[in-house]
Amino acid sequence: MRYFAHAIVIVLTATLLLLLASHALNPGAHAQTPAPTQPQQPQPTPTQTPSPTETPTATQTPSPIQTPAQTPTPAAGVGDDDEVEQVETNLVNVLFNAVDKNRRFITTLRQEDVRIYENNEAQTVATFERETSLPLSLAILIDVSESQDVTLPGEKKAARDFIESILRQRDDKAAVLSFTGTATVEQDFTADKASLQGAVERVEIVLGAGKDAIQEWEQAEKAEVVPARLEEIGLPGSTAIWDAIWATANELMPQTSSRARRAIILLSDGDDTSSRLRKEAAVEAALQNNTVIYSIGFESFCDQCRFDKNALRKVSEPTGGRAFFPEDEAELNAAFAQIQQELRTQYLISYSPTNKARDNTFRQIRIDLVNPELRKQKLKLTYRNGYFARAPAPPRARGAEGTTRARLPRPKRPPKKR
Q: Are 292 and 245 in contact (CB under 8 A)?
């Protein structure tokens, strides 16, 4: 019996050693095999049905502004689009409107109806679509010099109504600024209508300086010995329209989403009395920052003031905007309604320029109607007249949404021509 028991122990020990060696050589042999995964059925892609007023193009190309290959798509609940990394593209995006001789908007244009040129060279279109869903970034720029004393109450009411009606989407934002010798942010960009309307309501006329102060200011400006305090704020009650547009376009607009439709709504009589810059510099700043300017001009009741319609047209039309000259409250409301319709009813045409150089030069843009039938109707196309081929700029920090900021910086005085 002793020998039999000893033999059993030897057999069990050998068996255990064999099992341990087998597990060491193939550790996954005794692992649990996962259940097979059921293959997912592909989901059908919804087909977009064009509006009855729209004519579908032969091929639908995704917008370069929101193409997944260019801009990462945020997960649900990520937050504001501006927090998502924006990827630089080489496409030039041009928004335009088409209206007939009765100022009715035409919404049935097709890609083959138009041709786009850069510096008179035809470009190959990458995208053509009717664009109605772009978010808006609007800066309402209000002239508070003495010449606007009578018209300001009506302007404020119309501006409040405009804010109430135009901000529709989550990404739509507006800012309110006032200006005399310099521009002041009354309300930074926000989607909060109540904050914006409150800022409009707080705007007040700034009384001008007396004749002696004006003469002293003019002499100091010529001699370039302006006191430091006035160097910062400008002459109280003066009107520096072009400087205010320049500061808004350069300092405020770059903080908004790069995929938003940017616009400045200027309320003024067009009588610039103290800008350091010419209106051409204001237009250039707007074009550099892809901003359209709409002007609403009122004839002031100031004996010494001018109502400069031509200046307001010249600062608006090159950017793709235009000037309105309402004579009463009804026409003022109609002007705001027209601006809203133009901002919401646009075409987007994009192209990759044949000239790839980022040399900071200005490139002229022209869009021609090539459909003979449409040319007979004498449609008018409205768009910016060019862009600056600048190298990609580093992202700029945004101000906290909803905050009120101090004055925007005045532009430096341009050097004197020798």
A: no
User: Percent of the chain beyond pLDDT 70?
Assistant: 66
If you average pLDDT over residues 141-169, what whole number do you get? 90
CA-closest candidate to residue 409, choices 247, 209, 300: 247
Q: What are the residues whose beta carbons fall under 8 Å from the beta carbon of 183, sequence distance 6 or more?
A: 141, 177, 243, 244, 247, 248, 407, 408
Rounded CA separation 337/357 (Å): 40
Model pTM score: 0.69
Q: What is the mean pLDDT of residues 244-264?
A: 92
φ/ψ of residue 185, rounded to 5: -80, 110
> What's the token pair of residue 49?
């049905």
d(CA 28, CA 376): 79
d(CA 418, CA 415): 9
| Sign, CA torsion 132/133/134/137 | positive
- CB-CB contact of 203 with 264 (8 Å): no
CB proximity list for 229: less than 8 A, separation 6 or greater: none
pLDDT in the model for residue 98: 92
What mean pLDDT is reported for the chain? 76
Predicted pLDDT of residue 394: 58
From CA 409, how far away is CA 244, in angstroms rounded? 9
Q: Phi then psi for 125, rounded to 5 degrees? A: -75, 130
124 has a pLDDT exceeding 50: yes
pLDDT given at position 322? 92
Specify the higher pLDDT residue, 336 or 25. Answer: 336
Q: For the purposes of burial, counting CB atoms within 10 Å of the CB of 384, is it exposed (0-12), middle (13-18) or buried (19 or more)?
A: buried
